[in-house]
Amino acid sequence: MLRKNPLLSLKMFLFFGAAISSLVVSFLPLYFQNNGLSKSAIGMFFALGTAVGLFAQPVWGFMSDKYKTVKKIINIVLIGILIGIFLIFQLSSLIWLYVAGALFFFFFTALNPLSDNLAKRVADEHKVSFGSIRSWGSFGFAVISLASGFYFNKMGVQSLAIPMMTVAVLTFLLSLTLQDAKSGAKKVNLKEVGQFFKNRTLLIFFLLSFFIFLTHRVNDSFISLYLFEIGGNEMLVGWLWFIGVLSEAILLITSFIWFRSESPIKYMIIAGFLFTIRWIMIGFITDPSILLSIQALHGICFAIMYMGAIEYLYKALPVEMQATGHMVFMAIAFSITNIIGSSIGGIIFDAFGGPTLYFLMAGSSFIGTVGFILFSIKEKSSRKIEMVEG
């Protein structure tokens, strides 16, 4: 049935693929802590994963473009993820755990970007909203996060290996039913990838995106700590993430109503302003319940920003370079920002407190927003000149 319905197959794959991410982000740190690892050792494990992903994501994107297949690369990545999960839960030596973690993250960090790349291409081919497909990943993250909370409350987080391996196997089996996306007729080589990094307009786009996505990643790292700082508890942390990811899923699945592909930068400007307002509001909050209410803005800000960014990127790149471009964007918008945001954000949080951190995040979002306004004006001027010359 799934092979005959490529959109349903893809949606189910995205749901369970994001479920892997949910278990890794939400519960793998708790599993390590339960096994006696220190917070610094756990932090190093995930920092290593981010660093590996920074290298791995463009590599897998290039391989996808070079061999003109997203599906087969996803199949390979999931086999690597399964091997990585098996090793992580078998090893007790910290050094070997880091080695297994590096292997796992080499594959795992490519899964979501490749999945989004396939979803975008399939959505364009079938002339449906990318968000309506991508939302299934957000639903998967939210649903599995909430369900896992109840499960581990009864069974204990030490049983993480079984659900994590089960979900990964299901995701792999679903990946075999996927329909591959069409790609350009031209093969990509390393020289063309080098030209990609010399494109001044794209580099400016990446830089401005960095200023805004940096704040998104800093918030991911410290929102739970900030909630505790103003009087929250573990239960509220669970609801905080559920509200945020659920709002994201709702915005994405309804994107066919509100998103128009003609002016993607306009959406990024709107999202930038919303991010700025959101961070200022959080900086003034002293009541955990109000923070939970504002968390609904998480999905609104991210969905609008991400939809605009992906749409612009795919318009700016030739089809044979889209996987590479997508992976480079993800490395900049999520991996580099996570490394910088987690380190510098932690120093600011410790030295000056949560409100100062969020006010500085508002400043960063505002810089990116103003930059995109100027970027949009320049693009419109360039198009007018081209029309006159044409």
Any overview of this molecule?
With 390 residues, this protein is an all-alpha fold. The chain has two domains: 1-183, Growth Hormone, Chain: A (Up-down Bundle); 184-390, Growth Hormone, Chain: A (Up-down Bundle). It contains 16 helices and no strands. The relative contact order is 0.13.
Uncertain segments of ≥5 residues (pLDDT<50)?
none
Q: Characterize the largest beta sheet: strand count, sense, and whether it forms a barrel.
A: none
Strand residue content: under 5%
How many helices? 16
Q: H/E order of the elements?
A: HHHHHHHHHHHHHHHH
CATH level 3 topology of the largest domain: Growth Hormone, Chain: A
Give the count of structural domains: 2
How far apart are the termini?
50 Å
**Name given to the CATH homologous superfamily of the largest domain:** MFS general substrate transporter like domains
What is the level-2 CATH architecture name of the largest domain? Up-down Bundle
CA gyration radius, whole angstroms: 21 Å
> Mind telling me the CATH class of the largest domain?
Mainly Alpha
Fraction of residues in H or I helices: over 70%
| Spatial shape | globular
The strand count comes to 0
Task: Indicate the mean pLDDT.
Answer: 86
Structural class: mainly alpha
Organism: Lederbergia citri
Domain Major facilitator superfamily associated: 8-358
Transmembrane segments: 12-32, 44-61, 73-89, 95-114, 135-152, 158-178, 199-218, 238-259, 266-286, 292-314, 326-349, 355-377
Keywords: Cell inner membrane, Cell membrane, Membrane, Transmembrane, Transmembrane helix, Transport
